[in-house]
Structure formats: structure tokens, C-alpha cells
Design brief:
Length: 392
């Protein structure tokens, strides 16, 4: 394919539990600040599953994919820092670099790219008119600001792809908890973001790291993190198990990397949206901190009760207050972290690629979505290569 291509393959949302790979119009330069990137790697994210499952207002026709990297194919006349052939990774946040929040480094809450909503993203419902990158090409607006330049070649491709979202988001979750080196931390959820939070805590000098989940493949992945202790919440009360493992003490910090689709530990118990927040409040020591990078939404069509459907839930705010806990929430400002995490990868200080379970061709995306949603065959983090296998 080339910059003259008029159509391309893309992962196309049809309806709940159905995506297809369609031939769609290829993106074009719409503004002088745009770039067109030929996608070498795009990741399937747990957030994509929220749309796939019909748990959002997403409608058919959306092109998925907010974790994207590739090679610059075209640049608009206003682009000065990028050139054709540059290897780049884009934050999932689309930001203009000009609004007050962007000036303060809070690019996840840009007010200029998606009127009426603080924040924009590729290929995600309500996050602006930006097609996703689970496609052979993607348009990058405000390209000089949004694209991070990488070393040429194919080295570290899997790790660099994770700079679009989950590695910075895991790091951000730890930061939201006000963690400092030497502290202990409990991470709830051993999906990709939770694993990255636990890995980030290790990189940042945590004394003890506990990782809570019940999916065997995820608990096995947690064992790859030096010093991490997996906690299987299907075997008992996770808080009690952590405190026992931690010498009878609560942890200094905790991270909710699960979000609004948390489930209870009882036999056959379904979704309990507040369960992880409650566990964080219980397990964190007085004056400690809680970080919440796990997604919570203002409306959930598939919620288990009327309050949760409106994005509301009950938590033990009295206990939170009594213990003097701090709580930080919100999407990750990827640009705050990505260049530093890139350099840690280049230097060999970090290698987040251990979370990647599968590399697939774009034509295999529908099957991968199904398997990832069902948590089968070890599908935990899937990388799509829309233009075929990488060549070194």
C-alpha cells in the first residue's frame, strides 16, 4: 500500500459481540497539522471490549483502535517536526496542545478536540470524530504534538506499542495513589493495565507488590513481575489474604485497575461495581492513597442496577474519611510519561512486552475479540499488524 491508496482494511464495529474486517476509505489529510501513519502495530484494549459488549452508546460503523504506532506516510503543510518515514507511536489521547489543560500537561482532558467533552481519543465512542488505528492507516491530528518519534527499525516494537496506553496508564495509576519508593502496594486486576501498574510499582522501588485477579493466565503473568505476589480472589477474601501476606499490616497504596465491570468473589456472583473500590478502602493503611485508572463511565446500558446504570455507586465514604485516604482518578495523560518510558525501554531498564500474548494479522481480529472477551486460550494482550508481519 502507499499514500495513493484510496481504500484500506479496518476493524469495523457492527453490533454487540460482532466486529468485522471491512474495506473502508483510507484517511486523508484534512488539516495542515495532520499526518497519515501507516500502522505497523495496533493493540486490542480492554476498553474496546466495553464497546464490543454493548456496554456503551457505540453504534455500528465505528473503526476501533486507540493504541497505535507505525510509519509516517504523509504530512500536512503545517507539520514541521515529523517527516515521511519516521517511526512513531501515538498516545490514545487526541490533544491539541493549545488548551489550558494541555498547557498544564493534562492532555487526557483536552477541551479543544471534542467539544462538550473533556478529552478525545481514536476509535472510541463519544471521544470525538477520530477513526481508530486497527486499520492499515490512521489520521493523526495535531501530529507534531501527538506523535512520539521512535528509533528506526523494528526493535522493541511490542514494547513501544504499549506506550500508546497501557504502560503509561499503569504508571499513572501508581502515581495517582501518591506512591513513593519503598512502599507496599496492592493492584486489583491483572489485566494489561493492572500488570503494567504492578510492573511500574516494581520499577519505581516498591517493597511489596500484590496483584489480585482470579483468571489463571493473568495470575501466571503477574508472576513474571519481580517480587510480585499473585492473589486469587476466588479462593477467599482478597483483603484478608493481602494483609496476611503483608505481615498483618495494610498496604501503603492500592490501585483499582478493574473499573465498573468488577465482579464479586461469591459462587456465581455477577458484577458488583463498587467491590474493588471497597477493597481498596479496606486494604489501604490510614493516610495511604488509592489510584483509580480503571474505567468508570457516567452511563452503563448493561449495569446490574439502576444506580450503576447512571454511573453511581455506594462506597464507604465514611471509612475513607476516617482513614484520611486520598484518592486519585481519571484517564492517563500519556504525554506526561511516554517519552521517559520510551527511553527506559531503549536503555533496557524496562520491557513491558511480557504482557503481550498474541500477535495477529488484521483478518484474525474478529476471532481475537471473541477469545479476548471470553478470556480463553490465554488471550490477554493482542497486537494487530494491519499491514502484515514486521520485517527487520
Amino acid at each position: 500500500m502507499s499514500s495513493t491508496t484510496t481504500t484500506m482494511k479496518a476493524v469495523h464495529y457492527e453490533k454487540p459481540f460482532e466486529v468485522s474486517v471491512r474495506e473502508v476509505p483510507a484517511p486523508k489529510i484534512q488539516h495542515p497539522d495532520d499526518a497519515i501513519v501507516k500502522v505497523t502495530t495496533a493493540a486490542i484494549c480492554g476498553s474496546d471490549l466495553h464497546m464490543y459488549q454493548g456496554r456503551t452508546a457505540a453504534e455500528g460503523g465505528l473503526i476501533f483502535g486507540h493504541e497505535n504506532m507505525g510509519i509516517v506516510d504523509q504530512v500536512g503543510s503545517g507539520v514541521t517536526l515529523l517527516k515521511k518515514g519516521d517511526r512513531v507511536v501515538m498516545p490514545f489521547n487526541v490533544a491539541d496542545g493549545r488548551c489550558l489543560n494541555c498547557e498544564e500537561g493534562k492532555t487526557a482532558f483536552c477541551t479543544g478536540v471534542n467539544p462538550g467533552f473533556a478529552g478525545g481519543a481514536y476509535g472510541y465512542v463519544a471521544m470525538g470524530p477520530y477513526a481508530g488505528g486497527q486499520a492499515q492507516y490512521v489520521r493523526v491530528p495535531f501530529a507534531d504534538f501527538n506523535a512520539l518519534i521512535l528509533p528506526t527499525g523494528t526493535q522493541h516494537e511490542s514494547s513501544f506499542a504499549l506506550l500508546a496506553d497501557i504502560f503509561p496508564t499503569g504508571w499513572h495509576g501508581v502515581s495517582l495513589s501518591n506512591f513513593v519508593p519503598g512502599e507496599s502496594i496492592a493492584v486489583f486486576g491483572a489485566g494489561p493495565v493492572g500488570l503494567m501498574a504492578a510492573y511500574s510499582a516494581h520499577l519505581r522501588g516498591a517493597s511489596r507488590v500484590y496483584v489480585v485477579d482470579k483468571v489463571p493466565a493473568r495470575l501466571e503473568a503477574a508472576k513474571k513481575i519481580p517480587g510480585a505476589t499473585p492473589i486469587d480472589f476466588s479462593a477467599g477474601d482478597a483483603v484478608e489474604m493481602i494483609i496476611k501476606e503483608n505481615g498483618g499490616k495494610m498496604v501503603d497504596r492500592s490501585v483499582d485497575a478493574v473499573g465498573y465491570q468488577a465482579v464479586g468473589s461469591g459462587q456465581g456472583e455477577g458484577e458488583v461495581p463498587n467491590v474493588v473500590l471497597e477493597q481498596c478502602i479496606r486494604v489501604t493503611r490510614p493516610t495511604g492513597g488509592i489510584g483509580v485508572p480503571g474505567l468508570y463511565v457516567p452511563a452503563d446500558p448493561g449495569a446490574p442496577d439502576e444506580k450503576a446504570a447512571k454511573g453511581m455507586m455506594m462506597i464507604s465514604f465514611g471509612k475513607l474519611f476516617e482513614k484520611g485516604l486520598t484518592i486519585g482518578t481519571g484517564q492517563c495523560n500519556v504525554k506526561k510519561y511516554n517519552r521517559y518510558l520510551r527511553d527506559m525501554i531503549i536503555s533496557g531498564q524496562a520491557d513491558p512486552s511480557f504482557v503481550v500474548s498474541h500477535d495477529i494479522d488484521i483478518d484474525d481480529a474478529p476471532s481475537a475479540y471473541q477469545k479476548f472477551d471470553q478470556r480463553i486460550e490465554g488471550y490477554t494482550k493482542v497486537l494487530i499488524h494491519p499491514n502484515g508481519p514486521l520485517r527487520s
